[in-house]
Amino acid sequence: MPVAQCGCGALTATVMEYSPVVALCHRTDCQRRTGSPFGVGGYFPADAVVIAGEFREWARPTATGGMLTNRFCPTCGSTVFWTTGKHSGLIGIAAGSFADPAFPPPLRSVWEAHRTAWVETPAPQHFDRGAS
């Protein structure tokens, strides 16, 4: 079973299998969350994710008027997972938290108006270039 974890290993999210729903987000908020020019996450049914360990929450409004709540380790600060009001039955888990080269590639690239100029996304026919 794939296990995502924070930098210190105190917070984990275990899933039965990788999600086919993987998105690459260029939104400024995702850039700031990850400290990189984009965020990549898989979305899993909430009842298929087992969270273990202590976490803290930070919520922010989304561009569409909903809320997104990040969950992060209080020791090392790594954001491991998040939820959104728009997709209340899903948990987003940061791809990098799995630290697995076999993690599936993103199917969508969103918020490309915020994309850092030197970032190239693969195979445009596999991506939704709109903001969502």
Give an overview in words.
The structure is a single chain. With 132 residues, the protein is mainly beta. The protein has one domain (3-115): Metal Binding Protein, Guanine Nucleotide Exchange Factor, Chain A (Beta Complex). The protein is 8% helix and 36% strand. The strands form two sheets. Strands 6-7-8-9-4-3-10 form a seven-stranded mixed β-sheet. Strand 8 (79-84) and strand 9 form a beta hairpin. It is globular. The model is unreliable at 124-132 (pLDDT under 50).
Give a brief description:
With 132 residues, the protein is mainly beta. It contains two helices and ten strands; from the N terminus they run βββαββββββαβ.
Structural topology:
Blueprint: E1 3-5, E2 12-15, E3 22-25, H1 28-34, E4 39-45, E5 49-52, E6 56-61, E7 67-72, E8 79-84, E9 90-94, H2 95-98, E10 108-110
User: What are the segments in which pLDDT stays under 50 over at least 5 consecutive residues?
Assistant: 124-132
At CATH's second level, what is the architecture? Answer: Beta Complex
Summed up, the helix count is 2
CATH domain fold name = Metal Binding Protein, Guanine Nucleotide Exchange Factor, Chain A
**What proportion of the residues is helical, as a percent range?**
under 10%
CATH class, anyone? Mainly Beta
Count of beta strands? 10
* Radius of gyration from CA coordinates: 14 Å
What general form does the structure show?
Answer: globular
Estimated structural class: mainly beta
Q: Major sheet, described briefly?
A: 7 strands, mixed
